[in-house]
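Please predict the structure of the following assembly.
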Amino acid sequence: MSFARTFRHGVHPHAHKEATEALPVERMPFVERLVLPLSQHAGAPARPVVAVGERVERGQLIAEAAAFVSAPLHAPVAGRVAAIAPRPHPSGRLVPAIELETDPLSSQRLPAGPPLDAGALDNESFVAELQNAGLVGMGGAGFPTHVKYRLPEGRRVERLLVNGCECEPFLTSDHRLMVERAGDVVRGAEIAAAQLGVAETVFGVELNKADAIAALERAVDGRAAMRVVPLAVKYPQGAEKMLIRAVYGVEVPSGRLPLDVGMLVNNVATMTAVADWFDRRRPLVERVVTVSGPGVRRPANLLVPVGTPVRAVLDHCGGLAPETREVVMGGPMMGSPLASLDVPVVKGTSGLLAFTAEEARLPTEYACIKCGRCVEACPQFLNPSRLGRLSRAGRFEEMMGYHAMDCVECGSCSFACPSGIPIVQLIRVAKGALRERAVAEAAR
Amino acid sequence: MSEPHPPRLLVQPAPFLRPTVSTPGIMGDVLIALAPTVVAAVWFFGISALLLIAVSAAAAVATEWGLGGERGRAAVRDLSALTTGVLLGLVLPPSLPLWMAALGSAVAIALGKLAWGGLGHNLFNPALVGRAFLQAAFPVAITTWVAPGGPLALYRGTLAWPFLSAPPDAVSAATPLGQMKFLGAATPAGALFWGDVGGSVGETSAAAILLGAAWLLARRACDWRLPVATLGSAALFAEICHRVSPEKYPGALFTLLSGGLLFGAVFMASDPVTSPLAPRGAWLFGAGVGSLVVLIRFWGGLPEGVMYAILLMNAVSPLIDRALQPRVFGARPAPSAAPGAGTGP
């Protein structure tokens, strides 16, 4: 039991980080063909600005943001546009994408430009610059970063929280980034903090990453109004609202955003991307991906060009063990299952995990004995047991009264349930149905 | 282009990590926690106690297997029927005829559990439903108490034939609660703690029950608030009465150690199925059980009231659950974190 700062409730899954936490990030070689889905983010798909057959340089804009809530794409390799057509997306759907053919003769140097003075920009141009960099949340949800930075009239951000919790088991990509690029994490935070005019910047890191905490502390190096806050190791410590609760003891009101309590939360990977854009004019074209799990022969932390096929990444790690039955993109608590390996790594891909039949086996389901473990696990203080039962009975409307919409789908309830009931999935299904009904209502 | 990969990938929703505890595991922990009490029961009430527990357990499992249909046969594996049977066996008087124990156990499973839709759906604690049935059907046998006879004791009532009047036991003795209520005589705390007194086979040894409680709590097999609230409220209520009128009412220590309070609080009020789910509800439920026990003991017609206290609170448990839902994260207005922030409604 630790007395470090944390939120209430939550679960303690085994961390499974030993395989990769000490492995330095290595560069994934460029493969022949890359697929860049025009939707790698929440919001409107990007609009292509290149034509089939056109030559592109590494880092060149190839698709522009189609709306305010949208993000542009840049070429992760120098080469030729081979196709603009629907391609398999990690979600399992066919999604319009730009396919690039890598130029085997190119040096694949990513050109750097003169630094841009972020301090000279007003809020509107800073937001536009973040969007130009192609930044989206790198934890998985893929929400365009710049949207968070547009402050409504009269609103101020007093505190910037940099999220280095990485509470998902197996994943170590943020961990390695903090150890190896602590200076850029702090630099990115400094740029963002100066623009927002915050009173304080906090780096929240779980205690199991002592080297990352030490590296960040060295990088912060006595900067005023910046501090590293070690946090208890608990899932989902890295959920925005849980991080705020842990560091400041403040609960973001139900249905509201961190901005409503004067705060903004960004992932450490987003911070390095901010530093890359403002200091070196380099857009987001590659990211660190943890490849791990019992089905992976050679676990690794790889710097992967966005658009690289999952199959190629796994092959680079020695391929999959023959007993592999399940491949997950993201963490084991909130990631998504892949139906095919012929989908690309996208901007939100934090990890690729392979599981064998043993881990993939569904738990035996028993009747709910109302043991309350899900209630004590739920970081949103919901009653998952009741929500699950109502969902099974199809009583979706009633679930609104039990705050189903406050569920963050972290999966702690399913993980805690001794009766093996897929609680979070039952709630997800109901939320989907309720949202559809609301849309249908609105249309009428 | 690549080596063979799995012919077909499973697509299951997150989370991909599996629970580390299972429902049969929890039931198994309850059974382990009951082991010291079973040993104490046999130590004090001999072969009769062993047979009572064994017959009750066997009848419970057989009833689930026989009447539960296909689901029941599978449900035997969740260990809940076995747990119910052992629990019932432990709350029966030592000289109770075995056939009554078997009948009570069958009723516990059939009416206490299966009739409601099986595990997780019953309103009342099944073992106590079985005991309440025996109390109503055989009021004399269930209130016939004998003194502890040692590990080899075999009371004459034990092997009585069904529906023939059992020969009365030579050595009958009042329980400490009976002596207190009807004779005003207190039993020494030492005897109450170790269990060398009259009573139901599993309720007399506080030492054994506390050992089991430690296991239950260490393994998080029950909500700790339930036994704590039950025992705390009973002790507090009794102590207040004792301070007001010392010669009329026993104090906290006697209240806790005598009768079935400790056993009921640790193993029956703590049943997750029939108690509230949320923490605040657990406190209220436990406080209700503890207070009712003292009310019945001090002012009711019976010397003991644990069974009725728990059954009564079982009945209102769903109401408590409905009234005391957990407070949703962020439901209360957040304290203004920073000047200029939180200008929302």
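Chain B touches chain A through 58 residues (CB under 8 Å). Residues 333-345 of chain B have pLDDT under 50 and may be disordered.
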